[in-house]
Specification:
The chain is an alpha/beta fold. It has a domain of 211 residues: NAD(P)-binding Rossmann-like Domain (Rossmann fold, 3-Layer(aba) Sandwich). It has eleven helices and 13 strands. A seven-stranded parallel β-sheet has the order 3-2-1-4-5-7-11, with helices on both faces. It is globular, with a radius of gyration of 19 Å.
Length: 316
């Protein structure tokens, strides 16, 4: 059965897909692709969220109160679960850390348990996770079977993924999408870097030797399609480019693409003072992640190299 295809051939049928987190960076790029391919798409929507969405049918849910009616999910064949609090939205206070953790674990638990109780559950659940699972690992090459690290983000990711195990036990094909740094000028890390770099005041962070495992937004959406199509894929998929770079390399490449100098480094202590624990986990930590499952199952990256990816994203 076709789950999803970006190039649908004559005679192939559309598939009813449910998407959570559809207003986020990845979800907002994914939805038009699904719609343009003719797939009926519904979105999971909190009672108070984006009431003027782009006219997709919606199903209401509330993870905080465990509110999701399985009757509303009848006929759904694939689920793409992307919802979760933005980890870089604000400084990590105890309250914010709880919000980051709960938004992922409560939502995934509610969705997975609801799907598992259905008489005819969806065939596939793609559940978002993150390479934060691995923690700060220096230059170690990290693949899907690498053990998790220690700290707040690895702990969140372990529990986030564990929350979907109930769906797997029900016979649903579960894929854990461990997203790296998504590059887009419209959101995420790159969008925040553009102003200082364009002003010529960008530079490496800390030593610059920490690895950044990145992927273009186009390839992230493509990897989702690939994971849906390839029935052999189960378990963890690292959604990153095959060519991670150090922060110093990233800085030099972005400066080159923008034709700007990169002479203003941010010392580690300054990053920690400005962002607290979040700096240590997101800006100074090193994760050298490889997308083994994507490569071995034949996924073709549009932008495997950083310079060509940045030129494409920034119209250079």
């Amino acid at each position: 059965m076709l789950i999803l295809g970006f190039k649908k051939s004559r005679g192939e049928v559309s598939v009813k897909i449910l998407v959570s987190g559809s207003s986020g960076l990845i979800g907002s790029a994914l939805l038009p692709v699904l719609k343009n391919e003719g797939h009926p798409v519904s979105v999971l929507k909190r009672h108070h969220a984006y009431p003027d969405h782009d006219q997709e049918p919606f199903i209401q849910w509330d993870p905080e109160s465990s509110d999701l009616d399985s009757n509303n999910l009848k006929g759904i064949e694939s689920v793409i679960h992307l919802a979760g609090e933005n980890i870089a939205a604000r400084r990590w206070s105890p309250k914010q850390k709880a919000k980051i953790r709960d938004s992922r674990i409560k939502g995934t638990t509610l969705l997975s348990e609801t799907l598992a109780k259905m008489d005819s559950p969806p065939h596939t659940l793609l559940a978002a996770s993150a390479i934060g699972y691995y923690g700060n690992r220096g230059s170690e090459i990290l693949q899907e079977d690498t053990a998790s690290g220690t700290g707040f983000l690895p702990d969140v990711c372990r529990n986030w993924e564990s929350a979907a195990v109930v769906a797997s036990k029900r016979g649903i094909r579960v894929v854990y999408l461990r997203f790296g740094i998504i590059l887009s000028p419209h959101g995420g890390a790159l969008s925040k870097m553009l102003l200082p770099f364009r002003m010529g005041v960008g530079g490496k962070i800390g030593t610059g030797q920490q690895y950044m495992s990145w992927i273009s937004l186009d390839d992230a959406v493509g990897a989702i399609s690939h994971a849906l199509n390839e029935q052999s894929i189960q378990g963890v998929v690292n959604v990153v480019s095959p060519n991670p770079v150090t922060n110093s390399q990233f800085t030099k490449t972005l400066g080159k693409v923008l034709s700007r100098p990169t002479l203003f480094p941010v010392p580690s202590f300054a990053a920690s003072l400005a962002f607290g624990e979040m700096a240590d986990a997101l800006l100074l930590a090193s994760s050298r992640v490889k997308p083994r499952q994507l490569l071995t199952t034949g996924f073709k990256f549009k932008h495997p190299e950083l310079e060509t990816a940045l030129k494409h994203l920034l119209g250079k």
